[in-house]
Amino acid sequence: MMHRRPTQADVARLAGVSKSTVGFALSDRYDIAIPETTRQRVKRAALEINYRPNLAARALTSGRMNAVTIAFPGSIHSYHARVLEAFEYHSNMHGYHLIASTIGSLDSHKSGLDFSTLLHGPSDAVVLVDAFGHYMPDVNEILSGPKPVVSMGITSIDGIDSVLIDLKAGGDAACRHLIDGGARNIMYFGVNLPQADIPAYIAKCLVSDDADPRCIAFCRTADAAGLPIHMVGGDLNDRRATIETLEAYIAANGCPDAIFCHNDTLAIRVHGVLRRLGFQMPRDVRLVGCDGIEVCEDIEPPVSTIKQPVEEMCKAAWDFLQTRLAEPERPRQFVRIEAQFLPRASSTSTL
């Protein structure tokens, strides 16, 4: 019986492999070519002698925690769960643990403390997803922070490696699709809209790129077609309030002949309200969402959406992160990837 604490060398001896193979196998490094039978033999050997890697010692030796933090704005919704799953695939493939967190979940305009916690927490790097404009006052701390930061999503940060998803082309295609289908009274149902001054926000979207790209695409496409611009704010974190807002709008103004939703989560809620009120899609009202979550294909009628290229985005962000860890002084890395509009039966009768 082994009375001392078992070591990696003991596992290697029992499994008949090298210490490096033990390290790769127990770290689940699938980027290293190790036969699956060998991986399983190493894990059985470790279990047999009750070997547990000393993570603190490993971090002291390598200078790495083998962990990455991924942070989402406010809260984690259906689309972000998909992003989390896709990014975790790459982190696990390379032997990294993934820590999920949020920024500004208690107050989106006081995110400095959250940023500081992430930058000084137990991980080797931070990935920011959809870091919206009101986080920008805290960017200086990111730039001068102790670890690499990569931004991915519908916004990018100057001076930081960024994978930018361009929603403008997809948003424009979605709006033109609604207009070409005969819609003349289109409502944009969004989140984080400045309810106190929607007209000023619309004016900003028409002339400035410093706004949500979906809003920009909607406002500019509707304006170019000579259509009125209607924007109404929902709340992703309050399902009942969102439903009541839409019902009140329809009661006061009648049902629009098309609704362009900020994301698929809102689109699914709108879908339910429209059906409950007796409106048929696309005959009475055309509906479009954004993000491309799978459940939109499973409801009837399936919801048209702007599909974000999640797998491609996460792969690019992971590659940027690995390069940055290896080459801290490398110039900023940047790539732009376009989202794709996918028409479905909620907005067209030709499918």
Indicate the mean pLDDT.
Answer: 86
Number of helical stretches of at least 4 residues: 13
Distance between the termini: 69 Å
Going by CATH, what is the homologous superfamily of the largest domain? Response regulator
Largest sheet: 6 strands, parallel
CATH architecture of the largest domain: 3-Layer(aba) Sandwich
The sequence of SSEs as H and E is HHHHEHEHEHEEHEHHEHEHEEHEE
Tell me the count of domains: 3
Task: Please identify the structural class as seen in this structure.
Answer: alpha/beta
Instruction: Please tell me what the overall shape is.
Output: elongated
Low-confidence stretches: none
C-alpha-based Rg, rounded: 24 Å
CATH C-level class of the largest domain: Alpha Beta
**How much of the residues is beta strand, in percent?**
15-25%
Please list the strands of the largest sheet in the order they lie side by side: 2-1-3-4-5-11
CATH topology of the largest domain: Rossmann fold
Overall number of strands:
12
Helix percentage range: 40-55%
Can you walk me through this structure?
- One of its GO terms (molecular function) is transcription cis-regulatory region binding.
- It holds the Pfam family LacI.
- The chain has 351 residues and is of the alpha/beta class.
- The chain has three domains: 8-53, 434 Repressor (Amino-terminal Domain), CATH 1.10.260; 65-166 and 309-338, Response regulator (Rossmann fold, 3-Layer(aba) Sandwich); 168-307, Rossmann fold.
- It contains 13 helices and twelve strands.
- The chain has helices spanning 8-15, 19-26, 36-48, 55-62, 78-93, 112-119, 139-143, 168-180, 198-207, 213-224, 239-253, 264-276, 310-326, and strands at residues 67-73, 97-103, 125-129, 149-153, 161-166, 186-190, 230-233, 258-261, 286-291, 304-307, 334-338, 340-342.
- The strands form two sheets. It has a six-stranded parallel β-sheet with strand order 2-1-3-4-5-11, with helices on both faces. Strands 7-6-8-9-10-12 form a six-stranded mixed β-sheet, sandwiched between helices.
- Strand 1 (67-73), helix 5 and strand 2 form a beta-alpha-beta unit.
- Helix 1 crosses helix 3 (36-48) and helix 8 runs parallel beside helix 10.
- The protein is elongated, with a radius of gyration of 24 Å.
